[in-house]
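User: tokens in, sequence out, please.
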């Protein structure tokens, strides 16, 4: 009689929820105690017929109350440990079937249990080889800490690998992608052209998205004859050159200059430094060489100097001048942080960080 009376009490929604909350605080299960990651939102691209298995990360939402919602990684046993009901075997079930099974077990304690099980996007493995600072295999999470989808881009992966080396041929990067048929798809990427398109159009959607199993190969640039390079640059130079000036200038973007124009002229053509935020003592000059390698030079700014290689070099077609931000405690507006030019600047810094 007493057991029946207790069952009726805890079958009331409010009492059952309170009991569940108290149980999870007083007697946390191993699965709860091991939570090191924030709760993530489910992937909207996961197939509803997906069969859960070992290593899958799932979110179990009980009553849609955040403190009763937690994230689990399915162990080799296939069972997760939940408050009050203990181990529940979810391996071999779809997320909906797992939710139904958990709801059935909670129905002993809760009158109308509301349970959902969501599969979180699994981590992806990317291999980076060739002329990067830290080649190797990288296991990456395709979700942000806030739970939103984050499509991993080529520049982001290169950044994680420490950035490219000066010997890298960035116009001939190869992505080898396995297909479902067992064959391999080869994707050739001209990273410099991609950067210039981003700078010209401001469309960050042109970034290359990497996928699970991709192998990114960054080859070594071939040797070049410096005398021949200088002669070709002088003989074949167009009457006007296109230069990118990005970062903390008044009119960031692409500027057209006469042949043999200098770095100082490019900065002035972009409106000059942003007086509030610009670090005006030095800038970076990024140049694509004839062998498709890239060099980065830090130039000390002196507007009073004439043309010289140290402080006011002659610019070539497709050079990029990067003006960085002065350290400041004053917060910038969200718009200033999120515009397309700043995104391109961030991409350049991430790719060429190790020069």
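Assistant: Sequence out:
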């Amino acid at each position: 009689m007493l057991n029946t009376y207790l069952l009726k009490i805890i079958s009331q929604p409010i009492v059952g929820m309170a009991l569940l909350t108290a149980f999870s605080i007083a007697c946390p299960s191993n699965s709860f105690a091991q939570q090191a990651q924030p709760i993530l939102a489910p992937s909207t691209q996961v197939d509803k017929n997906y069969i859960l298995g070992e290593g899958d990360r799932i979110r179990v939402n009980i009553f849609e109350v955040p403190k009763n919602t937690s994230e689990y990684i399915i162990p080799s046993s296939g069972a997760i440990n939940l408050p009050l009901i203990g181990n529940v075997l979810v391996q071999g079930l779809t997320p909906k079937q797992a939710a139904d099974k958990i709801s059935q077990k909670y129905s002993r304690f809760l009158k109308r249990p509301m349970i959902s099980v969501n599969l979180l996007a699994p981590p992806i493995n990317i291999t980076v080889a060739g002329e990067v600072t830290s080649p190797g295999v990288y296991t990456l999470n395709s979700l942000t800490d806030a739970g939103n989808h984050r499509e991993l881009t080529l520049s982001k992966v290169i950044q994680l690998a420490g950035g490219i080396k000066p010997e890298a041929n960035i116009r001939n990067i190869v992505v080898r992608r396995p297909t479902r048929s067992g064959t391999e798809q080869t994707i050739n990427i001209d990273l410099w052209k991609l950067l210039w398109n981003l700078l010209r159009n401001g469309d960050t959607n042109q970034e290359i998205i990497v996928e699970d199993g991709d192998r990114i190969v960054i080859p070594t640039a071939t040797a070049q004859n410096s005398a021949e390079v200088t002669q070709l640059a002088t003989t074949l130079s167009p009457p006007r050159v296109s230069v990118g000036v990005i970062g903390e200038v008044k009119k960031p973007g692409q500027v057209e200059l006469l042949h043999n124009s200098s770095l100082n002229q490019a900065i002035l053509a972009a409106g000059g430094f942003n007086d509030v935020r610009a670090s005006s003592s030095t800038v970076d000059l990024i140049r694509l060489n004839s062998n498709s390698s890239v060099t980065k030079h830090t130039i000390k700014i002196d507007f009073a100097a004439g043309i010289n290689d140290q402080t006011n070099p002659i610019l070539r077609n497709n050079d990029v001048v990067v003006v960085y931000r002065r350290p400041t405690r004053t917060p910038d507006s969200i718009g200033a942080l999120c515009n397309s030019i700043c995104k391109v600047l961030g991409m350049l810094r991430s790719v060429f960080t190790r020069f």
